[in-house]
Amino acid sequence: MTIDQIIVLFGGLGLSALVAWYFWFSEKKAVKVEASESGIQEAVINVKGGYTPDVLIFEAGKPIRLNFIREETASCTEEVVFSDFNKRATLTPFKTIPVELKIDKPGEYVFQCGMGMVKGKLIVK
């Protein structure tokens, strides 16, 4: 093996490790959602290749409204599924689609696209 081949090999391995760390091991920044005067905890989630923000923190027992704004037409993100609550919603492109939940039990609850490739998490305290 020549020195050029060794450099390319280690460079490729290093970049692969960086991509794996970013997608699977980097810590996600959670967003704490406060209740409004009406008592509803409301958040806006942009959908474009993923959910932004994708980790949200709520208080148990108060109503939650998630306003999904789908900024793409990719078929993967046309539906959001909350399997813990047996709830799903169709996300129309370029429109705001509200999803309302009331979670009384603290815990972590995953939501995802219909294909299970794009995921987010609700942390209820």
Automatic annotation (TrEMBL):
Annotated membrane-spanning segments are: 6-25
Q: Which InterPro entries match?
A: Cupredoxin, EfeO_Cupredoxin
Question: Which of UniProt's keywords are assigned here?
Answer: Membrane, Transmembrane, Transmembrane helix
Record Gene3D superfamilies: Cupredoxins - blue copper proteins
Q: Where is the EfeO-type cupredoxin-like domain?
A: 17-124
Q: What is this protein called?
A: Copper-translocating P-type ATPase
The scientific name of the source species is Melioribacter roseus (strain DSM 23840 / JCM 17771 / VKM B-2668 / P3M-2)
